[in-house]
Amino acid sequence: MNPLPFIVASYAIAIVVPATLAAMAWLRMRRVERRLAALDPRALRRAAGRRRRGMAHE
Amino acid sequence: MRGGGLHRFANPGRFLRVADKALPWLTAGAFALVGAGLVWGAFFSPPDWQQGQAARIMYVHVPAAWIALWGYAALAAASAASLVWRHPLADLAAVEIGPVGAAFAAICLATGSLWGRPMWGAWWVWDARLTSMLVLLFLYLGHIALVRAFDDPNRGYRAGAILALIGAVDLPIIHFSVVWWNTLHQGNSISLFSAPSIYISMLWPLILATLGYSLGFAAIVLARLRAAVLERRLASLLMARAEEAERRSFAAAPLAAP
């Protein structure tokens, strides 16, 4: 039995499924960031501000 | 009892800052290592003396199995933290690990089936290793369903955590199934306590692919967890706005005559 189709199918599954999961996670992250920024532009900046202040204290 | 240093990272604000810094590195590392491991495994590693070219499926099957097992261990650890410390971030971590771990368990079973057909002449056999791995997939799916099955999310988290901890008994069963029972599935080729039984030019691409997929798993879970934390912030912001609007409308309304 020629194993090539089985190898190709395995690699396709192992690449497409994690890539889809990663793309879905990234889109979900961007969507909530956009909604948060639209609702309260300071909400996302606050974390960065805290980071800068923290570094200044260090 | 306190969680010591781990509690520092359980603070949502600190978690977001750590996630912001770690995500680009994890993603880049995952792409580089998975790319190198799969290209090496598919094109430059030698065929197996017994299984021939079909052994190349190992470079995707073994990392998927490894992540499905360690993913469940992480799910059980988050569930234990949720039950002991009642920390909301542990609940969210368990919820977000579930679907990713289930996907890797499904990849493991699918690629194993694609490996079994040319080698054993069968897509599936009710062998101890395969069956215990299928049970792991069902445990993941059960956890996903259970945490979403209650109107009160906290009850769902508690029920899911108990299921995850009970289900953790499947992990040693999967690992030792090839030792305890006479299985069609081959024994472990790599062990922490003995020299690997596979050739070094096959071992390196396997290590690279496994490390790469592990980083990819961490990146996906971190991105999902980051999104979940921001969704909670969004929900509390929307609720605060709605309460404020309601208070203003009460204050603006004229008093009704007695």
How would you describe this structure to a colleague?
The complex is a heterodimer of chains A (58) and B (258). Chain A has 58 residues and is mainly alpha-helical. Chain A is built from two helices and no strands. Chain A has a domain at 30-58. Helices cover 91% and strands 0% of the residues of chain A. In chain A, helix 1 packs across helix 2 (41-57). The radius of gyration of chain A is 21 Å and the shape is rod-shaped. Chain B has a single domain (13-181, 205-231), classed as Four Helix Bundle (Hemerythrin (Met), subunit A). The longest helix of chain B has 53 residues, at 200-252. The A-B interface holds A 1, 3-4, 6-7, 9-11, 13-15, 17-18, 21-22, 25-26, 28-29, 31-33, 35-36, 39-40, 43, 47, 50-51 and B 13, 16-17, 20, 27, 38, 42, 52-54, 56-57, 60-61, 63-64, 99-100, 103-104, 106-107, 110-111, 114-115, 117-118, 213, 216-217, 219-220, 223-224, 226-227, 230-231, 233-234, 237-238, 241.
What descriptive keywords fit this protein?
heterodimer, A: 58 residues, disordered C terminus, B: 258 residues, mainly alpha
Fraction in beta strands of chain B = under 5%
CATH class call of chain B: Mainly Alpha
Order of helices and strands of chain B: HHHHHHHH
Structural class of chain A: mainly alpha
